[in-house]
Amino acid sequence: MNEDIKKIIDCLKESLKEDPSSIVFGKLNDGIGEINEANFLKLGKYYDLLSSTNGARCGDIDLWGYSELEKNQYVLSDIQDEKESWLSIGQILYEPLIINRFDGNVCEFIVDDGSMNCFGELDFFLKNYVFGSGYCKIIPNSEMDDWFLFLKKNGIISE
Fold it and tell me: What angle do CA 64, 154, 8 make, to 5 degrees?
């Protein structure tokens, strides 16, 4: 994960701690410690995020913590390949959010029709959609969303 995203996460963690009402719309946990090599390989690029924040609630985007990952893999039963390329890492408005463990691309899996809406590599997704103005593109009516307003208040989004 690039340093800019780590700085954003650290900044937002502090701001969330200062505002007790933020628990409703946002939470960035402390990062996890080291894990065994087999689990590290299974997590792929998602490990970088877990080391900065072990799970997060970012408005209508939820990112699973390490302990939640295993129980949320059931959503992949119809798309998982023999290499087990996919890892379910969260949800956007209750639609599964998945990452390709090998190339780091993040997609929203639309359960109803089995399609995918891809957002690019993990760092791009985080910077532009979770912590950026792209949040408005994937979350309806987000201009008044508490997470979006929180990002603006903290100078993460300038629009």
Answer: 45
What is the secondary structure of 61-107 as a DSSP string?
EEE--HHHHGGGGGGGTTT--TT--EEEEEEETTEEEEEETTT-EEE
Q: Which pTM value belongs to this model? A: 0.93
Choose among 9, 3, 53: nearest CA to 32.
53
Q: Which band of pLDDT confidence, cut at 50, 70 and 90, is reported for residue 49?
A: very high
pLDDT of 147: 97
What would the pLDDT profile of 24-46 be if each residue is shown by its tens digit?
999 999 999 877 766 777 888 99
Q: What CATH homologous superfamily does 3-153 map to? A: SMI1/KNR4-like (3.40.1580.10)
Domain-wise residue ranges, the chain:
3-153
Q: Annotate 100-137 with b (16+ C-beta within 10 A) or e (fewer).
A: bbeebbbbbbeeeeeeeeebebbbbbbbbbbbbbbbbe
